[in-house]
Design brief:
166 residues, mainly alpha, two-stranded antiparallel sheet, 8% strand, globular
Length: 166
């Protein structure tokens, strides 16, 4: 098992525990609020990029072209809100869901409140007194796992390097 797949296993276990205890959990297919309001361009480790690149390689050229165009507009933008270039805006679904980065896997299930890394829609429910029974994932542990996965770069930079070689 690779360090990334082990990290995914840990994340999936926390997500499953929350969803099992809370069938009304709003982070599910069709909820794309976080994908439409990214605070900044996604940054990926080398291991995450290797996985995502495999997913992108599966896409037909007609689907890859608009992603490339959207990524080119992100290059160099330091702040959001941004729409994720991997989001199919018509369906509200991720085009590379099975290969998505760790940040996408953890959002809504793990929190780092001091850094503002949490779903504001869920946080509003928490502030209203709901979800007191939820055992949130420890984002510090995820960050520690990510730190071992290689160089970190913006998604647009990884993509541009891949496109240059294709």
């Amino acid at each position: 098992m690779t360090p990334l797949s082990e990290l995914h296993r840990q994340i999936d276990a926390r997500v499953l525990a929350i969803r099992s205890a809370r069938p009304d959990w709003q982070c599910a297919r069709g909820c794309d609020a976080c994908c439409r309001r990214l605070a900044a361009e996604p940054r990926l480790t080398a291991a995450e990029w290797d996985l995502l690149r495999a997913g992108l390689a599966e896409l037909p050229a007609e689907r890859l072209r608009p992603i490339a165009a959207d990524l080119a507009t992100l290059d160099g933008r330091s702040q959001g809100p941004l729409v994720c270039p991997l989001l199919d805006q018509a369906t509200g679904a991720c085009t590379v869901y099975a290969w998505r980065p760790v940040a996408c896997r953890t959002y809504g299930f793990y929190v780092e409140r001091q850094l503002g890394l949490y779903c504001h829609d869920i946080e509003a429910r928490v502030a209203g007194g709901a979800l007191a029974d939820v055992v949130w994932g420890n984002h510090d542990a995820i960050d520690h796992g990510l730190a071992r996965l290689g160089e970190v770069r913006p998604l647009s930079e990884w993509f541009a390097g891949w496109q240059d070689r294709s």
